[in-house]
Amino acid sequence: MNILAIVQARSNSTRFPNKVTQTIEGKSLLEIQIQRMLKSKHIEQFIIATTTDAVDDAICDIAQKMNVPFFRGSEENVLDRFYQSAKDIKPNYVVRLTGDCPLIDAQLIDELIENTLKQDAKYGANCLTPIYPDGQDAEIFTFDLLEEANQKATTITQKEHVTPYISQKAKESIQKSDFYEVKSNLDYGHIRMTVDTKEDFLLIEKLIERLGTEATWKEYTKLIESEKELSSINSSSMRNEGALSSEKQDIYARYTNSNEFLERALKTIPLGSQTFSKSKTQLPMGVSPFFASKAEGAYMWDVDGNKYLDFINGLLSINLGYKDLDILGAVKKQLEIGTIFSIPHELEFLVAEKLCEMVPCAEMVRFGKNGSDATAGAIRVARAYTQKDHVLVCGYHGWQDWYIGTTTRSLGVPQAVKDLSHQFAYNDIDSLEKLMQEYKGKVAAVIMEPSNVVAPKEGFLEKVKEITHQNDALLIFDETITGFRFSAGGAQELYGVTPDLATFGKGMANGYPLSAVAGRRDVMKFMEDIFFSSTFGGETLSLAASLATMTKIQTQPVISHINKIGTLIMEKLEKMIEEVEMQDIFEVSGHPSWSFFLVKDEENYWKIKTLLIQEMFANNIYYLGTHNVTYAHTEQHVEDLMKGYRIFFDKMKQSQMYGIDKFLFTKPLVPLFKVR
């Protein structure tokens, strides 16, 4: 078995120039490392891979002095330098070593080689989980994988750090044995025996003064742990800090077109988007995609060609999956017939009948185009029916004056309008009763999301209905999100509480613009006397999409599948939070179809939220803190989501040691307005 070790070394280190040529007791760090590595039982050949820069002549001199071959190649593309070093030899395996690890232990390397070959793996590593001290790192991989990586690697990280493409390729192989990782209960990852800073060099110098250059890694480790004076020398340094720089460059390079599009859009569109929740206010600048190009199933592509597993899904308007073939077929068929006419089309009553068939409170229906249309219509008809003006609200109910005046985004809303709407707290009956007493005899309606960030407490919805009716007001459930998602008949069916009116939107047409007000016949009849009308209320493409959507929800296991996938997400995420021991920072709540990953650290909330979004986007998951599950999501998608969380939690662990700011590649998001 031909095994080649390549030691990468250069002098132009940003944090500590000329580090590998620094001397201790007359020997350079590179000489010390090579002498230790020559003790390996399995490495047959060594090459030092350095750069063509004149400053690295000193490294070549050391190689010649040690009678070790060297190769000079690209400074930036280290992967290519590795490949060019090995291509004439064509070894079976290549061991990757870095020249800033002078005390690396040949025995650890031999153990890695033996176990990798025993498993017949194509890649093996002892550093993916930091169980050994930093500076005892090694990776081994086949020459074929190195050659493939050199041909196919595209990112700065892949080219600068040699093995990211290789390790990922092996890990994703159908042959699970292709990937080998050293596993152990050892926990020495906090110890540094590498040389990245002057403090690191000082520690190595003291270790060699005390134990010489021939000690084992365990002996060096024992000495460091036994003397606080030694362990504190470089304890503030971060493991693999250099990788963050190339990672940042890669992330910024992902969004070139998006950033250009945003700059252009801002010239003609306030905030650069027609939807507040899709605008730059919600996304970390520079590390986010701002424009989509297409979507299908559970995936969305941005204008830079990045493919995302989507857990936002058009702000919950997609519940079957993008480009669902049944819905697409119904829309295409209707497109051939016509989209709007001078008189109503039969789809208006067909969709209304279907909604009345599915939703407990629905006896009559009127359509709008978005959730705000529906909630505003419901409030107007409630005021007409009760002949009262005040409204009690709980949740988010759209952008129109009657509701948004209760939030911090109330600029432009007359005070007289603000004075008619009042917020009460979810799951807090006392706050509702207090408002009912304060505005006794004046409340027209209580409008609320029946489920929120948390589920309703036992008896809460029933009590809300009782108090509302005792005060001669109407109960309105805003089911813009929960409708056709929590159950076929919405949250009212799931929880067994029937409101007087309900509003629907988002998923009722799987992404086509349609909303509805539905409710008791005696109340809805007032729609004939108030003015609730729009030119496109009977637009047929959306109605055709809605009829197909509701029919599919009725006839296929849409709701049960969504609940199954959503429950799996919640269970796995809760378990992972426990495993990383971060229960004091994070928790999972909500309904399986619409669950929340909550950050409980108020002081660092926005920094943590920004890091979460940054890392999920970088790992091709479109996600903002909720899991908006669709019929298109699968158990494999859950596993892919958990991979993203694992990467995030790893960053969180490191941030607890070195500070979260090191891992943020942009300014943190800032608070806007909270509605739940």
Can you give a write-up of this model?
With 676 residues, the protein is of the alpha/beta class. The chain has 3 domains: 3-238, Spore Coat Polysaccharide Biosynthesis Protein SpsA, Chain A (Alpha-Beta Complex), CATH 3.90.550.10; 255-321 and 559-663, Aspartate Aminotransferase, domain 1 (Alpha-Beta Complex), CATH 3.90.1150.10; 325-555, Aspartate Aminotransferase, domain 2 (3-Layer(aba) Sandwich), CATH 3.40.640.10. The strands form 5 sheets. It has a 7-stranded mixed sheet, with helices on both faces. A hairpin with a 2-residue loop joins strand 20 and strand 21. Helix 3 crosses helix 5 (143-152), helix 15 packs parallel to helix 23 and helix 24 (558-579) packs parallel to helix 26. It starts with a strand and ends in an 18-residue tail after the last helix. The mean pLDDT is 95.
Q: Write down the CATH class of the largest domain.
A: Alpha Beta
The CATH homologous superfamily name of the largest domain equals: Spore Coat Polysaccharide Biosynthesis Protein SpsA, Chain A
Strand order of the largest sheet: 5-4-1-6-8-7-9
Q: Any idea of the CATH topology of the largest domain?
A: Spore Coat Polysaccharide Biosynthesis Protein SpsA, Chain A
Measured between the Cα atoms of the first and last residue, the distance is 63 Å
**CATH architecture descriptor text of the largest domain:** Alpha-Beta Complex
Query: Which whole number gives the mean pLDDT?
Result: 95
**Rg (CA only):** 31 Å
Structural class by helix and strand composition: alpha/beta
The count of helical stretches stands at 26
